[in-house]
Design brief:
Elements (H helix, E strand, L loop, with lengths): L2 H7 L4 H12 L3 H19 L4 H7 L5 H12 L3 H8 L2
Helix pairs in contact: 1-2
Length: 88
């Protein structure tokens, strides 16, 4: 969902919504969405045998390469390494 739609449904301008969201969460809307997707992906990596590609797509990432870069940045390891270590 776009920020403008969320802001409107809250009765706020987009810029005010962004400011309030950042103040309350410490994250931009974009960063919050990415973080939420990565946490969901980490759960799927730990608890399913779905391929990394399917998990990337299920988690809302359009490209596996983008997912891999984001996951590495957030968790300090690739999704494949994370999966192997979480199943020891």
């Amino acid at each position: 969902m776009r920020e403008e739609v969320i802001a409107s449904s809250c009765g706020m301008s987009t810029s005010h919504f962004r400011a309030v969201f950042k103040r309350e969460t410490g994250l931009t809307v974009r960063d919050f969405i990415i973080q939420t997707r990565l946490v969901a992906a980490a759960h799927l990596l730990k608890n399913t045998d779905n391929s990394v590609m399917n998990i990337a797509l299920e988690s809302g990432f359009g490209q596996v390469s983008c997912f891999n870069r984001s996951f590495l940045k957030a968790f300090g390891q690739t999704p494949t390494v994370f999966r192997k270590k979480s199943r020891v």
